Amino acid sequence: MVPTSYFLALSALLFAIGVTGVLVRRNLIVMFMSIEVMLNAVNLAFVTFARAHGSVDGQVIVFFVMTVAAAEAAVGLAIIIAIFRNRETVNADELNLMRW
Amino acid sequence: MPLWLFAFLAALSVISALGVVLQRNPVHCLLALIVTLLAIAVLFIGLGAVTVGFLQAIVYVGAILVLFLFVIWLLNIQALPAERSHLALKFFASVGAAALVAELFVFFARAPATPPAAHPTPDYGSIAQLSVSLFSDYLIAFEVTSVLLLVAIVGAIALARRVPEARASRAVPAEARAAESEGW
Lengths: 100, 184
Fold this sequence. Notes:
The complex is a heterodimer.
Chain A: H1 4-24, H2 28-52, H3 57-87
Helix pairs in contact in A: 1-2, 2-3
Chain B: H1 3-22, H2 26-46, H3 50-75, H4 87-110, H5 127-134, H6 139-160, H7 172-183
Helix pairs in contact in B: 1-2, 2-3, 3-7, 6-7
């Protein structure tokens, strides 16, 4: 049996990788994918804790997180398409109209 | 779940997650993300969350990532100039991520030991047990979720729709994307 802390450590590592992706990459779509990595790291922690407590509630939360992720991906990618139509770019650095 | 299987899946998911961050081509990033999500799905199943693991494979890999792929193809991302590198940004992001990992490790290490794993019932994580919980304790949240998805569908169509005077030839992908988000 694998200890709970191993799963939590893996979850922390994946979350940090996702954070790095959002900070380092400038391509909006890749930043979005990094957000998906972060969401999955959190899901892994939820399932791990659900298992540790012998409860199924954590898995239900994962179900809701997946739903929100689907909605977020649909709306976010629609926004990216709208930005691309207007600016012909998906580079976050070039979207500096509001920059002071 | 045996330790060697966990070690393999953990290494696979971390390496492919690094691939998401480090690959230059967005399609390669997407393929790495698919590997990450499938490895995590197997970890879910190993943790007893069988239903959630299969949902992960079907909903995430089957629907959400295909949506990403459609958008990458639609925008023809590879024809765009490569993103410039910001060395200072990369440095500080790496330092910040390392600090985050250290903080989370300390946090988890200081947390009180979780009670010894309650021996799960034979149907732990089954679709029956999950749906009993979903339709009793979480019924309102479940219903609100359907409203959320409806709003997301309408919002995605409204955002991605072309203005009428624009070329009609590129209006088709918006409908395809709407059908995709509706389909799951």
